[in-house]
Amino acid sequence: MKKMLYKLICSVLAVSLLALCFGGCNEDNGANVYRGSAATDSTGGSTSTDSSIITKPLENVEIPEGKTPYAVIDVKDFGKITVKLDPKSAPITVSNFINLAQTKFYDGLTFHRIIEGFMMQGGDPQGNGSGGSDRNIKGEFAQNGVTNNLSHTRGAISMARATPPDSGSSQFFIVHKDSTFLDGQYACFGYVTEGMDIVDKVCTTAQPVDDNGTIPASEQPVINSIKIEYK
User: Fold this and answer.
1) pLDDT tens across 122-164, in order?
2) Which residues pair with 192 in a beta bridge?
């Protein structure tokens, strides 16, 4: 019975994450973040046919040799969440995230979608799940033909996307509770090393207005800043 209940819960969460892609990161809902098309390759992954999609690490992002990048996410009225980024597992995703952080793209944005026991999603300039930056990146996950062994366990940070595999842009989510059924479908690119108590507080105090985790604009936790540090 417990196993059946667990599978049912996982199925519901999987559907919820698809809603994260369509409702929580819906590039067809006004922002038109995803502008390309995709074609399936011989390995079963997906290869973009749109040259505007970033398919390699950004040249303007340099990680000092022997150093590891960390992102310090300062959430207003809550505190700071420190995330250790993994450029070896997801080099394109990490360089894009660092670039957005260093250009202060995230400063003042919010976490617009929060589901306790699942994840907290933010990084949308529209604040409603429909927006992104001016670029899309290749999805670095197994179903897109990319080796990425990072798992969506508690504290993982990963990219939100729409249905096309290369539709990730600026929206990201932090996993509140283990959600390993997402592995291979989304680009995980690091883990929280400090501040999981902040993640817990954000997720447990949020009051979404629907089952999709929608947070009213006036109640969305604000990202004061995301700073990149090297250790």
Assistant:
1) 999 999 999 999 899 999 999 999 999 999 999 999 999 999 9
2) 83
State how far the Cα of 92 lies from the Cα of 100, in Å rounded to an integer. 12
Render pLDDT for 54-106 as a digit per residue (tens, 0 to 9).
999 999 999 999 999 999 999 999 999 999 999 999 999 999 999 999 999 99
For 78, the domain range is 2-230
36 vs 95: CA distance, rounded Å: 21
C-alpha distance from residue 54 to each of 15, 96, 126 (Å): 28, 9, 22
CATH code for the domain of 163 = 2.40.100.10
Q: How far is 165 from 154, CA to CA, in rounded Å?
A: 23
Q: Can you give the length of the chain in residues?
A: 231
**Using CA atoms, how far apart are residues 30 and 52, in angstroms rounded to an integer?**
19
CA–CA separation, 28 and 66 (whole Å): 41
Give the whole-angstrom CA distance, residue 84 versus residue 155.
Answer: 10
If one counts the domains in the chain, the total is 1
Q: What value, to the nearest 5°, has the Cα angle with vertex 139 and ends 135 and 143?
A: 155
